[in-house]
Amino acid sequence: MNLLLHAIFKFCTTTLPNYLKTFNYKSLNNLLPLESKFKLNIIDLKPNCHLCLIHYETNIHLFNKCVIIKPLLHHVTRLYVNVTGQHTSYFFDTARIQFHTPLSQTPHCNDLTPYLNSVLSYIIWKTRNKNKFQPSPINPQYSNY
Q1: More confident call, 93 vs 78
Q2: Which ranges in 14-143 belong to alpha helices (H)?
Q3: Residue 56 pairs with which residues in a beta bridge?
Q4: Rounded distance, CA 87 to CA 97, Å?
Q5: Which residues pair with 48 in a beta bridge?
Q6: Cβ(119)–Cβ(144) under 8 Å?
Q7: What 3-state class would DSSP assign to 56?
Q8: How far is CA 31 from the centre of its chain?
Q9: Domain range annotation of the chain
Q10: 3-state DSSP helix/strand/coil percent for the chain, to nearest 5?
């Protein structure tokens, strides 16, 4: 547990990396290249999510509703409760994709949720891209803490 607290403290004393700032900007301004946007111009494109391969790929589906992502959101919520001692439904709120950027440039531990959200959303996006170009079945399994 001390290693986890050390990692959180280190994260709380650094600023948000530029790649996360760029991702947040694109996500907040609806500029991420999702399949549903290209379907209007490309006839033979399949606009399904690259993770579950079932539903139409939109921001809300990819970051909140996808059956592959929901176990991750449960796991992160459980981890957040274990570390902070505060219960939250933040990670299941569809409006959370609007709250990537915290008010201050330097994070404080009490303002950790938007930073965690930024990192979580970025990881989901990178996983989606990896699966788009190198398709493989995804079966999320997480250990209990």
Answers
A1: 78
A2: 18-28, 35-38, 59-60, 70-84, 112-133
A3: 48
A4: 19
A5: 56
A6: no
A7: strand
A8: 15
A9: 2-133
A10: 55, 0, 45
| Under 8 Å between Cβ of 21 and 121 | no
Distance of CA 95 to the CA centre of its chain: 12
Neighbours of 8 (CB within 10 A): 15
Q: Decide if pLDDT at 34 tops 60.
A: yes
Q: What are phi and psi of 53, to 5 degrees?
A: 60, 15
Whether the CB-CB separation of 118 and 125 falls below 8 Å is answered with no
Is there a contact between 105 and 15 (Cβ–Cβ < 8 Å)?
yes
pLDDT at residue 141, rounded to an integer: 59
Task: Report the alpha-carbon distance of residue 26 to residue 110 in Å, rounded.
Answer: 25
Which tokens belong to 85? 């001692």
Q: State whether the Cα torsion 123-125-129-132 is positive or negative.
A: positive
